[in-house]
Each structure stands twice: as C-alpha cells, then as structure tokens.
Amino acid sequence: MKLKGSTAVVTGGALRVGREIALRLAERGANVAIIYNRSAEAALKTVNEIEAHGVQARAVQCDVSRVDQTKDVINSLAAEFGSLDVLVNNAAIYEKTPLPALTEDEWDRHIDINLKGSFFCAKFAGEIMLRQQRGKIINFADWSGVRPYADYLPYCISKAGVIAMTRGLAKSLAPHVQVNCIAPGPILLPADFTEEEREAIIKATPLKRIGSPQDIAATVIFLVEGSDFITGTMITVDGGRLIA
Q1: Are 186 and 205 in contact (CB under 8 A)?
Q2: Domain 7-243 CATH superfamily
C-alpha cells in the first residue's frame, strides 16, 4: 500500500512515539488524524506539524476505553476524510503496579486502555476497511508481553493480549486487511526512571543503547508500504532485549 493520498489514524498521536509516527506518515503523503485523551495542546501542535507536510490533519479527543466514543470517532473520521486506510493503535498506559498493592482499578485501567481500547478501535476500523477491501492495522504490543516482568503485571498481561488479538484479527479481516503488531523494547523510558535504572536497562540490552521513536516509526512505514504479504505477525524492535 502506498501512503500518498491515504488516510491514517494514530491513537495517542499527540506525544512521544505516537507523534513521531504521525509525522512520518505525513512525510509519506498520508492525511493523518490523531486521537488524544488529555493532551489537547500537544495534539494541536502536532496537527500544525503534520499540515506543514502539505497534507490534511485532524485532532480528535477520545477516551479509547469508552467503546461508544471510539465507534463515533472512528466512523466520523472515515466519513470526513472519505476513507480509513491505516490504523495505528498506539495509545496505552504504563504504570508500576507491585503485586502486593495491586488494585482492581489499576488492573481495569490497563486492560481497558491497552487491550479493550485497541481491540474496539481495530474492530470499527476493520469494518470500514473490509468495505473498502483494503487497509492496514498496526497494534502495539511490548516485548514484555512475551517475557513479563515483576511490578508491571497488568501492563504485561494487556500487551500479551494485544499479541493474541493481532493474530485473531488478522484471520478475521483477511484477505483484504493486514493486521500486525510492533513490540518495542527500551525506546523512551519513563521520566521517573533513575540513572541507575537506565544504565541497568542498557546493560541488559544486547545492542547496549536505548532505541528512538524513529526506530518505531520506520517499522510502521515498513509494515504499511514495505509489503502487502505480512499479516498476523509481531515485529520486535527492542535492541535484542527479548533474546538477552
């Protein structure tokens, strides 16, 4: 699929990795809508940066854990732009949740945003893509969905669910829609990580460095434009962390 003239939707597209993905899609000629929850100011700034590439852009507020909101937003964006060709399910939360103090609310938040939110965005976008007989859906898992680690279990479990979801949707939406997922490793570390924690992660990563949002955005572009014969797979972009 060529991005020029297509329509892409990026959830969590206002900041960090999502912003980089949105900008790279725009560079390739796609019209881009970003979905944000609380980052309104950043979303508007990103829209201006997208439009600087000579394409259309839109920012829409939506809580992806709310299925009713998600359905309305996905359908309205497809109607406004005239198509929905690419969905990047990037919106997620990542919070430390040590098991002894883990609450039901913390569990629900991770599952509702990371897994349920991604699933219903993909469901509603996939229905549109099936009618078009073309489309690409890219979900975001995590290497910890394969090798979970302590103190972040709801997050890891939600991302393991995204891997299974990707495979199931790839079957359900074939042959016209390709569904894949990216499993990042250490890319942008949380702001509250100490220097000691950062160095420990670098030491545990075979490539001995932290990755960049550009590494993820380049993988998104590959999955959209590089091949139309890849579906139901997970691409790990983690500097070798999964095999360490």
Answers
A1: yes
A2: NAD(P)-binding Rossmann-like Domain (3.40.50.720)
